[in-house]
Amino acid sequence: MSDNTNSMVSYLRQNPRMMGVLFTLTLLLSQAGSAAAGGSASVIYGP
Asked: How many Å separate Cα 47 from the centre of its chain?
């Protein structure tokens, strides 16, 4: 496990822009999840 972590850390040190890309992707995915969860506000009763 530490081998994988060390390789990720070294990759991010060599490519600092990728940190911003990963942060932005995480932010967008969290916002999309919230929007998808809030989109079902209408309630349908019965069969």
From this structure: 36
Centre a 10 Å sphere on the Cβ of residue 27 and count the other Cβ atoms it contains.
10
For the record, the structure tokens of 25 come out as 């992707």
Give which of 30, 3, 20 is closest to 38, Cα–Cα.
30
Determine the longest span between alpha carbons in the chain, in angstroms.
57
The string of pLDDT tens digits covering residues 2-29 is 677 789 889 999 999 999 999 999 998 8
Pick left, alpha or beta for residue 15 (phi over 0 → left; psi -120 to 50 → alpha; otherwise beta): beta
**Contact predicate 36/43, CB 8 Å:** no
| Cut 0.90: pTM above it | no
